Amino acid sequence: MKYAVLGDIHANLEALEAVLADAERRGAEQYVSTGDIVGYNANPAECMDRLREIGAPAVQGNHDHYASDTESPDFFNPIARKAILWTRHQLDAGHRQRLAALPMTLRIADFTIVHSSLFEPEKWGYIFDTGDAAASLLLQQTPLCFFGHTHSPAAFRMKEGRVEFMPYETLRLEAGWKYLINPGSVGQPRDRNPLAAYALYDDRQRTVSLHRVEYDMAATQAKILKSGLPEADAVRLSFGH
Ligand code: ZN
Fold first, then answer.
1. pLDDT, tens only, 113-145
2. How many CB atoms lie within 10 A of CB 57?
3. C or N terminus of the chain, fewer CB within 10 Å?
4. What separation in Å is there between the alpha carbon of 191 and the centre of ligand 1?
5. How far is the CA of 218 from the centre of ligand 1 (A)?
6. Rounded to an integer, what distance in angstroms lies between the CA atom of residue 221 and that of residue 176?
């Protein structure tokens, strides 16, 4: 089976459609989302509906959580907070309920998905370095886990108490190691590469490959400006930051 792993879509419908088309061309048979389906960009409901249409299981991201809630998102920075409040108003009760019902972690076949970390996922900590990765890897029950939240592709692996960081394009999964992999962000990359990112996991070949896809960014940016979302959310897309 070939799985397309979609991280941090963030309501960017143009990027999502481009990624789905690319993944389909490469033979993807199943789609999964590591959360933050909504927030920042202008098409939260449409992205949720598209994922539902293709039967993609998802875990809950922090933006999904706060967009589904009435709790004040005070501890977000002002730009993220404005986008969350805007998103809340865009979604109907059904969409908000669907976001609220998303699980924090999910096991799919021989791998797990989580938004932030398997270590205290409800605290939304980030996995940036091997120390952060170790806390999650120690709790990982499957040989492979995909996470999101940082919007940057990265891979870590652990064996016999040793944790390694590995930048990757195509990674061959070796027996005896546990892998913790970020597919990058579909809708708001932050690794200084503005192209939409996603990963393909091939469970027969035992490989995970990273893919970058061009999309109609100008359309996404125009929607942000027209909708009254923060201009900074449009600008950052150009820089992948
Ligand atoms: Zn995110």
1. 999 999 999 999 999 999 999 999 999 999 999
2. 15
3. N
4. 13
5. 21
6. 44
